[in-house]
Amino acid sequence: MRIITRTEAAVEPNHWQDELARAFRRSDELLEFLRLDPQQLACDHQPDFPMLVPRPYAEQMRKADPNDPLLLQVLPLLQERDPVEGYTLDPLDETSSNAQPGIIHKYHGRVLLMLASGCAVNCRYCFRRHFPYADNRIARRQWQQTLDYLRQRPIISEAILSGGDPLMLDDEHLSDILDELEGIAHLRRLRIHSRLPVVIPQRLTSTLAQRLEQSRLQTTLVLHINHANELSEAHRSGLKQWRDAGMTLLNQSVLLKRVNDEPNTLIELSERLFEFGVLPYYLHAFDAVAGAAHFDTQEHLAQQLHQQMQQRLPGYLVPKLVREIAGRKSKTLINLDSGQSGNYNGM
Fold first, then answer.
1. pTM of the prediction?
2. For the chain, which ranges sit under pLDDT 50?
3. Does 43 show up as a binding residue in the annotation?
4. Ramachandran region, residue 291 (left: φ > 0; alpha: ψ -120 to 50; beta: rest)
5. If 122 and its partner were Cys, which of 40, 52, 146, 180 is the partner (CB 3.0–4.6 Å)?
6. In a domain? residue 182
7. What is the CATH number of the domain that holds 173?
8. Which DSSP letter does residue 121 get?
């Protein structure tokens, strides 16, 4: 295994940052790029939750199709402003698990570190679209407080990097954080949850892959992919490089109305993921976040879809169907036989 130096790391171009800089931030510009008439869609041109869509992701969308499943995930609509009973600002009650700025600790043995407040894409269904990121930013000078929290709790064996999106930090900053985490003896695993490589495949840099390969921590990258069309040939080599570096690649999806709520779409997604070396991990029932009720699907439909996946796919390509319920100490498996939900010790 070759050790990569900081000098070598600086040579690799940060193409992903260039792509982020030229992302679409106005719905009219995105629709023009897609050859769509804004009158066809009830867009919110000044949404409270801003639009952000990287161009590589937009290039995966079908032109002149207002029902494209990728477009539906990122285009702000006026109906987001409609209040709907039961849909709240904090559907998972994360504020009660916000142990200190930048830390959410609600599961046994695992702690979630919010390293970044921003994302490379603003998904309209995001359950953290109202999260108080301003109160949870961790400046470099505050990082020792986070490390102290981990050091003082030997029960914690896994650090989960989240956000926002942790891969919004550059490779050098992430390497510094990794140095510190590796120095905590009771930590054994590192998990990175990110959608950034999905929307900007250039983020799968060789520099970061090689740094993670050198780590003593077992590393898992969990991607957030909801539709097979989100995977392009541009992802293939990057994902292979990270897999060859010893990382486990998993995917979690959210069941979204009009995006992936039919069996062929979900089956194609699992097949496509495996073709790219990624295992399906979770299929999440929708979190009832305010502003996104139009994405929700009924639980009995989720059960039916999951049953059809089980009937048509090998078991290793069937993700666990789960729901996260505020206050519970684990994910909740949706029981397909009885229609009941049972605890599942996962995150």
1. 0.91
2. 1-11, 338-346
3. no
4. left
5. 52
6. yes
7. 3.20.20.70
8. S
